[in-house]
RNA sequence: GGAGGGAUGGCAGAGUGGACGAUUGCGGCGGUCUUGAAAACCGUUGUGGGCCGAAGGUCCCACCGGGGGUUCGAAUCCCUCUCCCUCCGCCA
């Protein structure tokens, strides 16, 4: 959510910024509703002030007969207030609804572009391995080594499900445990184990609703929503709180399963374990002061890159242009790693500075010092990293001519000393 | 799943229809005293919105878990939702 006062005062700037996102937003409607709301409030508050006064007067009269005409009059005023309240409620509901459909605005450092073709590759790190044989994709390696079972996954749950088996399951678990330890011990994050199912409100706060309703699983019976990312519960961790400035930045890292309906990408990436309905992810999240959020953004990107570096897998960092920013980010980087079997750069992390967009929705604030008025925090999130795709990268980059897979050095302590999957 | 009790300011805890945005205590902040500190004493201490304004305002409105209702008037009465606690049942 944007600051309504800002839209009121600088509508042209807001409109221009949104245009670069290739998204439309109901700015005119918001301006009209805001105007309407304030004029209604003026009207109803005058009536309320009068009723408060007269009601006290009636109280003082202690049931004397001269109170009766006043009561009659206040009954009328009460009706008017009720009617106006209803109008205010209507207008506010429409205003809120419109505000929830306004995307975040891009930071000035974000390149203007129409779509993903205008994203900017900022840097590429690591040497692409030279193969003296034809590297296989993971969907061939996995079944041959009996560590991925596609058929039985589909038998149980349908398309986009699979089973990891034996050292395949172990390798994913090793990656998760190692990543968590890395971020906790080397990068200063606090580990969180959040709920995987949340109430609807959490999705409004983090910006998944109303825009991405179609991508979220919902349990109608209990009204639970299955998270598509740990960002959702982590954003809501401090919802409604006023934090002390000296605890900021708060840095959290969480492992969760993630669930996505993938209605938007039906038919895309159906092969292998690139895009499933259920996947694991390690997610970094920060609550910061406004002035430090862009420094923290760079740190999160670097933390994500560290995972690729330490695994010894080439990666690159891509800066999203305005047209590919999405709904909530003010600035976003993707980290992609090279997969020689799939022959593509796979997105394994998306790192965003959301500024105060989620904080306004969730009323997440901080106080600079005692007595100071609360201000909104900035929130940032970034994968560190997404699991199945990192698993793909390990399998494909570390494959040997005989089809076996060498376990990266850093993971061996987490693999019970296993050095090669064969 | 059944039965009961509860939700009030940073915390604890009063308040069961009108002078209550809310007694009091603790904590915090400022002050007096003191070489300094403690104690004691005095003062102060929430959030959001509106209006006017350059800063600001002895201005107005709302907020006692959320939503609705009764009433001239609701923290207080009624309905409902959420959450917490106690007991019973079931259970990884």
Please, could you describe this protein's structure?
By secondary structure, the protein is an alpha+beta fold. It has two domains: 4-99, Helix Hairpins (Orthogonal Bundle); 116-421, BirA Bifunctional Protein, domain 2. Helices cover 40% and strands 21% of the residues. The protein has twelve helices and 18 strands. The protein has helices spanning 4-9, 11-19, 27-61, 67-99, 138-145, 150-157, 167-185, 200-206, 231-236, 293-311, 357-362, 387-397, and strands at residues 120-125, 148-149, 163-164, 190-192, 197-198, 218-219, 224-226, 242-244, 250-259, 278-288, 315-319, 331-339, 344-355, 365-367, 375-376, 378-386, 405-406, 420-421. Strands 1-11-12-13-16-10-9-4 form an eight-stranded mixed beta sheet. The chain has a three-stranded antiparallel beta sheet with strand order 5-7-6. The chain has a three-stranded mixed beta sheet with strand order 8-14-15, with no helix packed on it. The longest helix is centred in the N-terminal third of the chain and has 35 residues, at 27-61. It binds one RNA strand of 92 nucleotides through residues 38, 41-42, 44-46, 48-49, 51-52, 54-60, 62, 67, 70-75, 77-78, 199, 242, 370-371, 373-374.
Roughly what fraction of the amino acids lie in strands? 15-25%
Number of helices: 12
- The number of distinct β-strands equals 18
Overall average residue pLDDT: 94
- Give, in order, the helices and strands: HHHHEHEHEHEEHEEHEEEHEEEHEEEHEE
CATH class of the largest domain: Alpha Beta
The CATH homologous superfamily of the largest domain is named Bira Bifunctional Protein, Domain 2
* Structural domain tally: 2
* Annotated CATH topology of the largest domain: BirA Bifunctional Protein, domain 2
